[in-house]
Specification:
Immunoglobulin-like; Glucose Permease (Domain IIA); eight-stranded antiparallel beta sheet; four-stranded antiparallel beta sheet; 31% strand; binds zinc ion
């Protein structure tokens, strides 16, 4: 009898020591996103075998909690690298237990993102009024809180499907100047599509915020778990509400031109451990994202798009204005008094605001 009790006690102790989370209850992922160790990219850091540690560690980068998944019998950290990060070595803090703290080094390389210069003739469209600023600050706080949300989730997506059909009109990371004033870099990806084009959830998630924001227009923010958040802006219509759980491919609304834009397109933001990262890294085959089989007209080649971005000065690079007719060529004639293809950052810097 005493022997049996001992066995039972030992069993209970084992469970307590290992914790209730084990690789069997902590779903393993089959694929990982593509690593690109640059500002705005992501790092894949292999931590240790799932046999050595039954439970995943607590991982932090730049004081933000980091996603950890089990992949091929290893614990792997998937780390978003913020755009502001300086190239060089950065510490990843890995806490296996109160006594077992380790640091891994992430080597971040430099990346020269292309420059986009826009001249905006109608200055008051660029410079918000005092009243606008009160609204902008309030909305910015709401968006920032949602983008840095952490939700414990056993099953997290590591792959996305394209949220809207259409060619990419502005890539992630573009360094932007409006009337020679530096703005925050383009922290999302633009998909050009006609108004009303369906927007689908690129992976399963929960709607954590919706709103009609000054810069971003009608927007939806999805929480995919473990610090992976995605945001959809300038929508013509929102088909979901806060608290809704959405499946991969479920329609969440439609492409529009609400907020500070003149042309219909989807501005898509992906945030991981509160770092805005290039959404294309969640596509195992990046051609899925860059090709748009539904288009009747040819899409500008990469070289054409690149020349449009670097042309200087550009009065209206037209990337978004042309969005519904991408075949017209990357640089179109400027139109007087037309707000160029532009949008303000999702989350304006406080210091940027007067
Ligand atoms: Zn955009």
């Amino acid at each position: 009898m005493r022997g049996r009790l001992k066995t039972l006690l030992a069993f209970i102790l084992t469970i307590c020591c290992y914790g209730l989370v084990s690789p069997t209850t902590f779903a393993a992922v089959e694929s990982l996103p593509r690593a690109e160790q640059v500002p705005g990219g992501l790092a894949i850091v292999r931590l240790d075998s799932t046999r050595h540690h039954r439970a995943p560690p607590l991982v932090h980068f730049e004081n933000e909690r980091v996603m950890v998944v089990a992949h091929e019998k290893e614990w792997v950290a998937i780390v978003g690298l913020p755009l502001y990060l300086e190239p060089g070595e950065h510490d990843l803090r890995v806490q296996w237990s109160p006594e077992n703290l380790k640091f891994h080094t992430i080597e971040v390389k430099n990346k020269e993102y292309e420059t986009q210069r826009l001249i905006i003739k109608d200055r008051h469209k660029v410079e918000p009024t005092e009243q606008d600023l009160v609204r902008i600050r309030k909305e910015s706080r709401k968006i920032n809180v949602a983008l840095r949300k952490w939700t414990e989730k056993i099953k997290v997506p590591t792959e996305f499907i394209k949220p809207a059909e259409g060619p990419l009109s502005s890539v992630f990371g573009l360094r932007r100047f409006f009337n020679d004033q530096p703005r925050k870099p383009h922290s999302g990806l633009d998909i050009a599509a006609a108004e009303g084009t369906p927007i689908r959830a690129p992976a399963e998630g929960t709607v954590i915020a919706t709103g009609d924001f000054f810069f971003n227009g009608n927007s939806v923010i999805l929480d995919h778990g473990q610090g992976l958040i995605s945001m959809y802006s300038h929508m013509s219509r929102i088909d979901v509400k806060e608290g809704d759980n959405v499946e991969t491919g479920q329609m969440i609304g439609a492409v529009g031109k609400t907020g500070r834009v003149t042309g219909a397109h989807l501005h898509w933001t992906v945030s991981l451990n509160n770092a805005r990262i290039d959404p294309s890294l969640f596509f195992p085959d990046v051609n899925v994202l860059t090709s748009s089989p539904g288009d009747r007209q040819p899409v500008p080649t990469e070289a054409e798009v690149a020349s449009a971005k670097t042309a200087e000065p550009v009065v209206n690079n037209g990337a978004i204005e042309r969005s519904a007719q991408p075949a017209e060529g990357p640089v179109s004639e400027p139109e007087d008094e037309t707000l160029p293809a532009m949008e303000e950052p999702d989350t304006p810097n406080e210091e940027m605001l007067p």
